[in-house]
């Protein structure tokens, strides 16, 4: 019975889609058996695709609300489902693997033996999925958000493209551990001294992450300080490209972020991952120090014949990491021609 419930999860997680959906490969089963007890797996498999209450789930499972409610809350606290309050009513929602379960389990920043085991199991599953069928991105689930201050004077940044807009429009903000870098740390990999408290959450995601993922509620000033720290470190700001209602903002590095790795494996990375901006280099001001080339996460820059960096626009995704690292402030970001921002 317990073996079958995990086999059923292949189709269930496949139906939820998005990144690294359910695959019937050897690496899938030890992962889900570590994440879910057989009972939790059965509950997960029965969850509707829309938001639901404990009472609705009890009806689906043929049990009582009093019995199912604490089980659902425990699953939420273990990053296996979303949970948040709407007034006095607690709501739940099923989660896909990515963005979702395979990331959220690391946001609390735990360092137990189980955390280390999960880091290895999740990595093995992702690697096996990628090896079995290299991921082609027909539509990007993520988008880059360029850094506001780097945009050339006179060019308007649409609200949709401003990093700081998401801080200004939300009174509820939290910060959690970067799941990619923390998972790498658990696997014994070098995190290159990058900031760990770097994942920002907004609105109801801020409530959920603070309640269930051990994220910390922060002020807008603290959020700005985190953005500044991440920009100085050369991290890429990215968020969902599926909806205008943004629940999170990631600060990603080129070594451990799976999104960036997958996008850079595409034939033309900038076609599926872009902010709508590109760097402009001023030959009269550039000192040819090479800092921007070293910082570029897309490996899209090289020094030209005239000691001015040249950008490969097929690879550049407009993150502004080159611009934020320029001590001379000589790299403004300008709108990419033909790209609708």
Keywords:
single chain; 341 residues; alpha+beta; six-stranded antiparallel sheet; two-stranded antiparallel sheet; 14 helices; 38% helix; elongated
Model description:
With 341 residues, the chain is of the alpha+beta class. 38% of the residues lie in helices and 15% in strands. It contains 14 helices and twelve strands. Strand 7 (236-240) and strand 8 (248-252) form a beta hairpin. The chain is elongated, with a radius of gyration of 21 Å.
Number of strands: 12
Mean pLDDT: 87
Main sheet characteristics: 6 strands, antiparallel
Q: Structural class, from helix and strand content?
A: alpha+beta
Number of helices: 14
Task: Quote the distance from N terminus to C terminus.
Answer: 51 Å
Q: Tell the overall outline.
A: elongated
Radius of gyration: 21 Å
Residue runs with pLDDT of under 50 for 5 or more positions: 153-161
Strand adjacency order, main sheet: 3-7-8-5-4-6
Give the % helix: 25-40%
The H/E string reads HHHHHEEHHEHEHEHEHEEHEHEEHE
Fraction of residues in β-strands: 5-15%
């Amino acid at each position: 019975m317990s073996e079958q419930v995990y086999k059923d999860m292949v189709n269930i997680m496949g139906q939820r889609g998005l990144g690294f959906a359910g695959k019937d490969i050897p690496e899938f089963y030890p992962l889900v058996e570590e994440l879910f007890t057989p009972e939790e797996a059965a509950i997960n498999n029965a969850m509707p695709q829309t938001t639901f209450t404990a009472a609705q789930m009890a009806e689906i499972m043929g049990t009582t609300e009093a019995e199912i409610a604490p089980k659902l809350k425990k699953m939420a606290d273990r990053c296996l489902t979303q949970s948040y309050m709407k007034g006095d009513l607690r709501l739940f929602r099923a989660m896909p693997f990515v963005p979702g379960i395979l990331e959220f389990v690391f946001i609390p920043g735990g360092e137990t033996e189980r955390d280390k085991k999960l880091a290895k199991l999740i990595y093995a599953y992702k690697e096996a999925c990628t090896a079995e069928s290299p991921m082609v991105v027909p539509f990007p689930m993520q988008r880059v958000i360029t850094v506001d201050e780097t945009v050339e004077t006179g060019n308007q940044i649409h609200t949709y493209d401003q990093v700081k807009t998401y801080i200004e429009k939300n009174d509820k903000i939290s910060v959690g551990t970067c799941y990619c870098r923390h998972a790498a740390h658990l696997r014994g990999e070098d995190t290159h001294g990058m900031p760990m408290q770097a994942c920002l959450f907004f609105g109801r995601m801020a409530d959920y992450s603070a309640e269930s993922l051990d994220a910390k509620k922060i002020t807008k000033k603290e959020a700005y300080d985190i953005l500044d720290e991440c920009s100085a470190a050369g991290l890429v700001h990215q968020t969902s490209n599926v909806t205008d209602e943004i629940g999170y903002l990631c600060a990603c590095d080129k070594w451990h972020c799976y999104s960036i790795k997958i996008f850079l494996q595409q034939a033309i990375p900038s076609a599926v991952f872009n902010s709508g901006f590109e760097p402009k280099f001023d030959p009269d001001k550039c000192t040819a120090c090479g800092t921007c080339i070293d910082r570029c996460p897309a490996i899209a820059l090289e020094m030209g014949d005239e000691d001015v960096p040249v950008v490969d626009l097929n690879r550049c995704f407009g993150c502004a990491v080159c611009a934020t690292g320029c001590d001379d402030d000589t790299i403004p970001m300008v709108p990419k021609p033909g790209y609708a921002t």
